[in-house]
């Protein structure tokens, strides 16, 4: 079953997942960026072996999802056939009652059956990142909770994808959402650290520790306002309350 490694598949991922090309519990990390609301056909670019362009674009995904026979069949798989958790079936029933048979419901239903398969192939120590936009993020989080469990929700990452731009009657829609879930409590995590550039260090870390020569930044240990709890008590003969502050 190792013939799936180092392979690139194009097209509908549900077909690949259900064809058992990828064994259950074999994937460490999943990132998916499902298209939505762009009214565009998503293409994967390939070239023929002879370099010709005639077959370069292969349609992989059509973003104009509407409620129809395909979404009805997917809904039936979850609700009637029980391919996922019972809570997922309950959720889709509630969402359909609320949303009706519209494009959003079709999108959520088609996402649900795919996320069930992605949960199957993910290792117990694996993680999944789902990229979406605010149009559907609030619904998709419920779907993710139903499949992966609320306790396995790790982060909601707000990604600023563009600069601010003017809108006549609202704030500019300039961010996307990335949901980070694990399959269990025992998941792999690597702390991400990057070095500050020299300009930033020179501006903010402009004090030097004489004993070691290390640079540091002085930061106040107190915050404004008096507190009656532990944060308002004296420490090392310093009473923050006397200057209308508290330990932060």
Structure description:
The structure is a single chain. By secondary structure, the chain is an alpha+beta fold. The chain folds into 2 domains: 2-182, Rossmann fold, CATH 3.40.50; 198-247, no CATH class. It is 28% helix and 22% strand. The protein has a 4-stranded mixed beta sheet with strand order 1-4-6-5. Strands 2-3 form a two-stranded antiparallel sheet. A two-stranded antiparallel ribbon has the order 7-8. The longest helix is centred in the middle third of the chain and has 19 residues, at 103-121. It is elongated, with a radius of gyration of 25 Å. The termini are far apart.
Radius of gyration: 25 Å
Please give the oligomerization state of what you see. Answer: single chain
Query: If classified by CATH, what would the architecture of the largest domain be?
Result: 3-Layer(aba) Sandwich
Number of domains: 2
Shape: elongated
Strand order of the largest sheet: 1-4-6-5
Decide which structural class fits the backbone. alpha+beta
CATH-defined fold name of the largest domain: Rossmann fold
Number of helices: 6
Give the terminus-to-terminus CA distance. Answer: 55 Å
Order of helices and strands: HEEEHHHEHEEHEEEE
Count of distinct strands: 10
* CATH class group of the largest domain: Alpha Beta
Low-confidence stretches: 52-58
Beta-strand fraction estimate: 15-25%
Give a quick account of the main beta sheet: strands, pairing sense, barrel closure.
4 strands, mixed
Residue-averaged pLDDT: 86
Q: Helix fraction?
A: 25-40%
């Amino acid at each position: 079953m190792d013939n799936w490694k180092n392979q690139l598949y194009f097209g509908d991922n549900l077909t690949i997942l259900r064809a058992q090309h990828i064994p259950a519990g074999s994937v460490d990390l999943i990132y998916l960026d499902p298209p939505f609301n762009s009214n565009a056909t998503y293409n994967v670019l390939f070239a023929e072996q002879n370099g010709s362009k005639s077959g370069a674009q292969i349609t992989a995904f059509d973003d104009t999802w509407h409620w129809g026979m395909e979404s009805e069949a997917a809904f039936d798989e979850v609700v009637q056939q029980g391919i996922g958790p019972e809570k997922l079936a309950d959720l889709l029933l509630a969402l359909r009652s609320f949303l009706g048979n519209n494009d959003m419901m079709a999108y959520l239903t088609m996402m649900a059956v795919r996320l069930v398969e992605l949960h199957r192939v993910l290792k117990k120590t694996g993680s999944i990142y789902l990229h979406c936009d605010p149009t559907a993020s609030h619904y998709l989080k419920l779907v993710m909770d139903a499949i992966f469990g609320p306790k396995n929700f790790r982060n909601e990452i707000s990604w600023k994808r563009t600069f601010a731009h003017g809108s006549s009657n609202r704030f500019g829609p300039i961010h996307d959402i990335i949901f980070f879930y694990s399959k269990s409590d025992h998941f792999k995590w690597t702390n991400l650290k990057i070095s500050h550039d020299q300009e930033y260090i020179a501006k903010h870390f402009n004090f030097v520790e004489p004993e070691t020569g290390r640079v540091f930044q002085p930061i106040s240990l107190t915050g404004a306002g008096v507190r009656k709890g532990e944060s308002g008590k004296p420490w090392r003969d310093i009473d923050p309350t006397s200057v209308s502050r508290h330990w932060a």
